[in-house]
Design a protein that fits this description.
Shape: rod-shaped
Strand content: under 5%
Structural class: mainly alpha
Distance between the termini: 141 Å
Radius of gyration: 65 Å
Number of helices: 7
Oligomer: single chain
Number of strands: 0
């Protein structure tokens, strides 16, 4: 036999034995309190049904003051009957207060069963509702950048306003001095004199450069010395 089945069977057997003994004790106490016949058999059923109803309310709706109250009342009634019939109470001479409790039990059990079935759940420790999360901010459309404010021109006194003069042209930079051999300068004078005798005009720089066979900057330097 599987171990799980054995455990379930053992629990069921224990429940049957405990229920039968409690049922018998409640019947004996009710009969001793003056509830004879079928009424004595109805008391154990009423106590056990109230105990089961309170326990199911606790299992279904969680901890509740109402369910715990009626569960303890039914449990005390069952345990009280078990202890009272164990020899601590003379069942042939039941006290008056116990007869009153037994006689009032049907109305008490009916009220407890009605409240357990029809009253709303009253949990002692209700779960706290989650705090409402802040709504996500809606992204705003990007606004166009504001145009930069133009600086306000400062007032200018008309008396201090002087007409701007155009910039003067820079003076011509004289060409750098080029060292010319003295013999080349003498030869250039002879060439210039010969050209002036033949043509009657001073020799220009291009003609001088062509006759001497020198570069332009050298011809310019020689022309400066011949001037």
């Amino acid at each position: 036999m599987p171990r799980t089945v054995f455990r379930v069977d053992a629990v069921l057997v224990q429940a049957v034995i405990a229920g039968a003994l409690s049922f018998a004790h409640l019947h004996d106490l009710a009969a001793a309190a003056g509830q004879d016949g079928w009424k004595a058999w109805a008391y154990p059923v009423s106590v056990d049904l109230l105990l089961v109803a309170a326990w199911r309310r606790l299992r279904a709706d969680g901890p509740s003051r109402l369910a715990w109250c009626w569960f303890l009342i039914a449990l005390i009634a069952s345990l009280g009957a078990n202890v009272a019939t164990a020899g601590l109470l003379d069942l042939t001479n039941v006290p008056a207060w116990l007869r009153i409790l037994v006689a009032a039990w049907p109305a008490l059990a009916f009220m407890g069963g009605t409240l357990l079935v029809h009253s709303p759940a009253d949990r002692s420790s209700p779960p706290t509702a989650p705090a409402a999360s802040d709504p996500e901010p809606v992204p705003e459309a990007e606004s166009a950048p504001a145009p930069a404010a133009e600086p306000t021109p400062e007032p200018v006194n008309s008396a201090d306003r002087t007409p701007a003069l155009p910039p003067a042209d820079p003076a011509p930079v004289p060409p750098p001095a080029v060292p010319v051999p003295a013999a080349l300068v003498d030869h250039a004078r002879k060439v210039a004199a010969d050209h002036e005798q033949r043509t009657g005009a001073r020799i220009d720089t291009d003609t001088l450069r062509a006759r001497l066979g020198v570069p332009p900057y050298m011809a310019d330097a020689i022309a400066v010395q011949l001037a």
